[in-house]
Design a protein that fits this description.
Blueprint: H1 9-12, H2 41-49, E1 59-62, E2 77-84, H3 88-105, H4 115-132, E3 140-151, E4 154-165, E5 168-180, E6 185-186, H5 189-192, H6 198-214, H7 218-223, E7 234-237, E8 242-246, E9 258-261, H8 264-270, H9 273-280
Helix pairs in contact: 2-9, 3-4
Length: about 300
């Protein structure tokens, strides 16, 4: 089994999006970001009046699941480093997100499986691969889970995957998920963006994407789409604003990951007002445990 590296998020997420200064290159018009609408007193009152849960203390621990019995030496290797907390709802949500990531490795619909159900399907896929040819090795997968940020009950979870599955090796593939512990809700990107400003987010994303794509290999350029849709990304946040994450291999089979950071003004523009207030204008119940990410200029 190979060792799993656990890079800090500031390194794992860093993708330089600043294009080289080429005097011959055409100057692109910057994305127009209109001044953000003021947050209504109603939204502020709602946030201030909300009961904020205590800080989530999460301890690293092996996930609880059972692997099928294996009589020979060519056995499935599945290691899942999980978290234990005193929040029962969060524990169930975390379990579901880990199951989702497992199913994504098989390119299957997660379908809200439990972790054990996902493990069973993953083990079955490994066995099927082994039965195709005697020399086929069982799957190997390490999954690491960490809480990257949390503020006023909004928790950012990172899941990192390293695997050797069939003929494919994956190193440091990242997934991000956000939970609202106060409302006990999963918060995918489609649920947090203000509908009236979705086009603004789309424009910001594709300006960054165009610059990023220009620096990629011919192989990536040929396979990559001309534009990205913001709904295809996973969102995250730090102390300055939000961002969109496209994992390695998502844009094209050989593409690196792409992380697009929005500044504070852009984040205020595109996020729903109540969530922006919670993340960036309310006092936190406790300081963040991780360092601030380095952002591209």
């Amino acid at each position: 089994m190979f060792a799993v590296s656990k890079p800090a998020l500031c390194i794992a997420l860093l993708v330089t999006l600043t294009a080289c200064n080429d005097a011959k290159a055409p100057v692109e018009a910057p994305v127009k970001v209109e001044s953000a609408p003021p947050i209504s007193p109603k939204a502020v009152t709602t946030v201030e009046a909300a009961q904020v849960l205590p800080y989530l203390a999460a301890q690293s621990a092996p996930a609880q699941f059972v692997l099928p019995k294996c009589a020979d030496q060519n056995c499935l290797e599945l290691n899942i480093n999980s978290l234990t907390t005193e929040d029962a709802w969060f524990n169930t949500w975390l379990n579901t997100r880990q199951a989702e990531v497992l199913m994504l490795q098989l390119q299957q619909d997660p379908a809200n499986l439990t972790l054990q159900q996902a493990v069973n399907r993953y083990a079955a896929a490994s066995k099927e691969w082994q039965q195709q040819y005697r020399q086929h090795q069982a799957f190997q997968l390490d999954l690491d889970t960490v809480v990257v940020h949390q503020k006023n009950g909004i928790v950012l979870l990172q899941i990192q995957v390293n695997s050797h599955q069939a003929e494919t090796k994956v190193l440091n593939r990242l997934y991000f998920f956000v939970a609202d512990r106060n409302k006990q809700q999963h918060l995918p990107v489609k649920q947090v963006i203000a509908p009236d400003y979705a086009k603004t987010l789309q424009d910001i994303l594709n300006q960054h994407y165009k610059k990023w794509l220009s620096t990629q290999s011919d192989e990536v350029k040929t396979a990559a789409p001309s534009q990205l849709a913001w709904q295809q990304g996973q969102w995250f946040y730090d102390q300055e604003g939000i961002g969109l994450h496209f994992r390695a291999g998502q844009i094209s089979p050989t593409a690196e990951q792409l992380d697009v950071y929005l500044n504070t003004a852009q984040s205020k523009r595109v996020l729903k007002a109540e969530l922006y207030q919670i993340l960036f204008h309310s006092k936190s119940t406790r300081e963040e445990p991780h360092e601030s990410k380095n952002r591209a200029a």
